[in-house]
Design goal:
Length: 59
């Protein structure tokens, strides 16, 4: 469970950083794109982790 809560915290921090970058640089910015991609990776990792947990529960 610890990994799940860590990922959730990292996702929230990533969202806040993305919002800050959008405010500072605007949407068409390389920095915004990079942060958006990093956030996508965290969300994908979270989804893989929760899917894996659910599959283990169903066994």
């Amino acid at each position: 469970m610890r990994k799940r809560s860590v990922l959730k915290d990292q996702i929230e921090q990533g969202r806040q950083e993305l919002s800050r970058l959008v405010d500072q640089y605007g949407i068409p910015s390389v920095k915004v794109l990079e942060q958006s991609m990093a956030l996508d990776e965290l969300i994908n990792e979270y989804n893989r982790f929760t899917t894996e947990m659910n599959m283990n529960i169903e066994k």
